[in-house]
Amino acid sequence: MAQGALRGPSDYSGEPPRHPSLRINAKEPFNAEPARRDLVASYITPVDLFFKRNHGPIPVLDDIRSYYVTIGGLAGGPRRLSLDDIRRLPKYNVTATLQCAGNRRTEMSKSRKVRGVGWDVCALGNATWGGAKLSDALQLVGVPYHTEITPSGGKHVEFVSVDQCPEEKGGPYKASIPLGQATNPAADILLAYEMNGEVLKRDHGYPLRAIVPGVIGARSVKWLDRIDIIEEESQGFFMQKDYKMFPPSVDWDNIVWSTRKPQMDYPVQSAICSLEDMSAVKPGQVTVAGYALSGGGRGIERVDISPDGGKSWLEAHRYQKKGVQYVAGNVTSDKWAWVLFKAIVDVNSDTEIVAKAVDSSANVQPESVESIWNLRGILNTCWHRIRLLATPNLRSSM
Ligand SMILES: Nc1nc2c(c(=O)[nH]1)N[C@H]1C(S)=C(S)[C@@H](COP(=O)(O)O)O[C@H]1N2
Ligand SMILES: [Mo]
Predict the structure, then answer these.
(1) Where is the secretion signal located (predicted)?
(2) CATH number for 384
């Protein structure tokens, strides 16, 4: 860890500048997402517009020469790796979408109140992350590829940050992933020092963060301090008392946190971003555009759009990179990344436009929010609905 990192869990005097168009959900800690149309304007999300999800102040790590990450626990060691040590490992660029488990929470809260940051549909972004593979860093300290359990009984890899979070009583943010995933080079887990070809910004984990593709954002720990091999999964707050999926029957008076596993992969998801709910449109052709993605490296097989609340459906066009046909699972398609979609529908009267995606394992988004309601409001992946008001005299300037 570098000098000057620790300033106290309520000291927000050292926050970085942010783009004025971000929609701020909370200032301290800073939580913000881009506007819907800005989000789907490009396949790669510009760093400035990428959603920002924090649980405490942004650490100030300005003396980069004194920075190191410690790899220890049941890995033997401990070994300190400087940023130069990490940069000397083979560099990979992985395009992966990071999605907060709380994305679309506000919509879930309308059905029945939930606790958490009130996200619209843009608590995600797609970036090209540059860095070393975690599997290579672990190999460097003596943990071979495809290790499920170390001789000393290590089964999980815990990432520990330098930030200070109230939920951890001023301690650091922590999360873990299974060792077998961490030591699998094909899982593409990175120790990332670049985002979209630039040095990582402070908001996104400068100087070094974990990127765990296909898994909820909460496991991609920013501002790494330590990486420890441990016997059981991390006992951190964000693994044990948050980011778990409960059934609709569990509420705050009967919750038993230990009965559920920490959420890892996210399920299939999509949302329309070209339209706001309850907006007025001129009768005629309306463009329905948005994003779709699934967890665990599963591609998007299909995006269905309904112009009439789910009675009839048409298939949207899907795309990632210009001039390259998107085929789920094809080597030319980014397996950890979202697809953008577009469809043109005819709107002649007030109606509800619906989007639902199907992933390469034929998983489909659930129809109703009630069936997946959970008290923390995570993983709202129900069909995304936009109500439109057909307004013949609408002036085109609107
Ligand atoms: N150290 C640390 N890492 C963290 C967090 C945090 O508060 N502290 N938030 C997590 C959550 S919940 C999400 S969704 C992502 C958000 O990453 P971003 O701010 O780069 O978009 O970071 C994760 N990593
Ligand atoms: Mo998150």
Answers:
(1) none
(2) 2.60.40.650
